[in-house]
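Predict the holo structure. Ligand: tetrahydrodeoxyuridine.
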Amino acid sequence: MDYRELAKIAVEKLKFSYTPYSGFNVAAALLTESGKVYFGVNIENAAYTPTVCAERTAFFKAVSEGERHFRAIAVAGCKRTYLDSDEYKKGLLPGYTAPCGVCRQVMREFCDPSEFDVILVRSYDDFRVFRLEELLPESFGPENLAGQLMR
Ligand code: THU
């Protein structure tokens, strides 16, 4: 599984987002160290704040299946209406979608920031790769609570 394939999964899963309120679909494909892929989409809610982002859906699916070691996550996003366009059918998105701050912090919980890659996808052939530490510098993580950890 290379990053191009991971990017392709993220673009393809955009149709599964549940976005009646924002109309903005996001999908994420999370690659484990063992080569397995978990995908997630954003799932909105009439009460707004229960909305969960695509990246967190992917992480929580994976962690709840026993996964703890991750290599990379590919993130793709676009307006829901864009999914009907010819450009989308060719696998092209209008722009890159970066993970929100809360999702970066969830990644930080389970990943080494100097090793984990975050892939912002515009198409199967057009994506930008960042190390988590670039997107979340000087971060707070489990090591900060060393001695009090229960995991
Ligand atoms: N969203 C994500 O799924 N991931 C992000 O990192 C950014 C925001 C979703 C949340 C909401 O459903 C929609 O995009 C608009 O904010």
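The longest strand covers residues 70-79. Residues 19, 22, 24, 26, 42, 44, 51, 53-55, 99-100, 103 surround tetrahydrodeoxyuridine (CB under 6 Å).
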